[in-house]
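Before relying on records like the one below, remember that each one covers exactly one chain. Contacts with other chains, cofactors or solvent are not represented anywhere in the record.
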Amino acid sequence: MVLPQSFIDEIKHLLGDEESQNLFEAIGKDQEESIRMNVNKTSCLSSPIDVAEKYERVPWCTSGFYLNERLTYTFDPLFHAGVYYVQEASSMFLSQVLNQYVGDRNVKMLDLCAAPGGKSTLARSTLSNDSLLVVNEVVRNRAQVLAENMTKWGHDGVVVTGNEPADFVALGGFFDVILTDVPCSGEGMFRKDAKAVTEWSVENVDNCWSRQREILRDIWPSLKEGGLLIYSTCTFNTKEDEENVQWIVDELGAESLPVTVSSEWGITENLMKTSTNVYRFLPGRTRGEGFFMAALRKTSYAEPVFSSGKSKRNSKPALAVPANMKLWLKNPDEYTFDNDGESITAVSTLHANDVALISKVLRVMQAGVKIAEVKGKDFVPSQALVMCVNRNEDAFPIVELAYDRAIAYLRRESLILPAEVPKGYVIVTYRGAALGFVKNLGNRANNLYTQEWRIRSGYMPLEVKCL
C-alpha cells in the first residue's frame, strides 16, 4: 500500500518516528475481523453457539468477539436472521461510553449519521429496553440499508429517519443522548478500504473538519441541557479529532467527560496535551481499526419540547386493526396499533407520543414494527414481524429448515413443506432463528422473503464457514 506523502509527514509529526512506523506497518497488514452477538436472539436458538469458547472477546464490549477466521457471511443463515452483526472492534467502544454515562436509565437517543447500522444496533442492545432510539441517514440508499439492519436486529423501540441535521431543530431539546459519528477523511479506514487512500488529501481533511462543525452546530439545539453528546470519527488527524472536541467545549458549551479504560487496551489519549478527554484507537497499538471517540455533557441552554403533536398520517380517520392480529406480538396491551390502509404498525405505547412528534416534523421511514401489509381484504404478515424479538412465537406454525433449504429460502426459491404442516402463513427457521414467512399451499410454499434482501449469488463456495 502506497500512502500519500502528506499523510506520512502528518503522522510522523503527530506520533513520532517509532510510533508512526508501527502504525504504517499495521495499516499494511490484513484487517482482523470481529462480530457482535445479538443477545436477544442467541438466547432463543435451538442449539447454543459456543462463541465465547471459539473466539476472544473484545475487552470493551461484552458481546463483541474477534474472529480467528473470516466467516462466509453471505451464506450464513444466522447472519441474515440478525443473530450477529459484523462490526469493527474499535467502534464497539460506544458500549463503554453508554454503560458508564447512561446505564439503565430510559432515554431518547439519536444516532445522527447512522448507516449502515453498526453503532445503531450496538446502541439498541446497550440501552434499556424502554429507551427510544432514533437512527438517521440522509442518503436514501444508505438509509434503506440502515432500515434493513435495524429490522433484522429485531427491537421495536426504533425510529428510522432520513433527514439533514438542521431538520432536528424543530424537535427542540428532545434527545438525552446524541451520537455524531460524522463523515470524515477516513484515515483510519486505509487498511480496510483502498479507495480511502486514493481519495485522501490535505484539502479533503480541511473540508471534513469544517463540515463536521457545521453538523455539530446544526444538531446541538436538539440535545437537552445536561445531555450526552458522543463524537466519533475514523480518522487520525487532530483537526477532525482533538481540535473539534475543543471547539465543542469552547464554542457550543460542553464539559469533556472521562471514560474508564484499561491500560491493557492500548488506547491512546489526547495527542495535543489539552484538557479534553479523548480516546484514540491506533492499529499496531490497539486491536482494531483507526477510530476516535469523545464524550461530552451539554452545559448550554436547550429549548424544551412544548408539544407532542400528532403525526400527519393520523389526520385521516383511523382504520380498524383486527384483534387477532394484535396477538401476533407478545403483550399486545403495551402497544399502540395503527392501520393507514397500506400497512399495520405497532409502536410501544411508552413511545407513542414521541413517535407522533417525530413523524410530524421529520421524514420517517419506519417506526416501531410493521406487522402486516394490507393487500385488498387480506393482511400479509411482514418480514419485520418475523424478525421482531417481541413476536408471539405461538401465533404461527414454525418449520425448521436444514442448511441447504435455508439457503434456498434466502435465495427466495419455493419450498415444499412436510405434509402435516397446516396451510397458510408459516414461519421458517434455521437452528431456531426465524428467517421469514412462507404461505403454504400444500403442494408448495410461496416464498415471502423480502425481495431486496435475498442472496443474489447463484453459486456456493467450495468451503463455507458459518458461526
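Residues 202-219 form the longest helix (18 residues).
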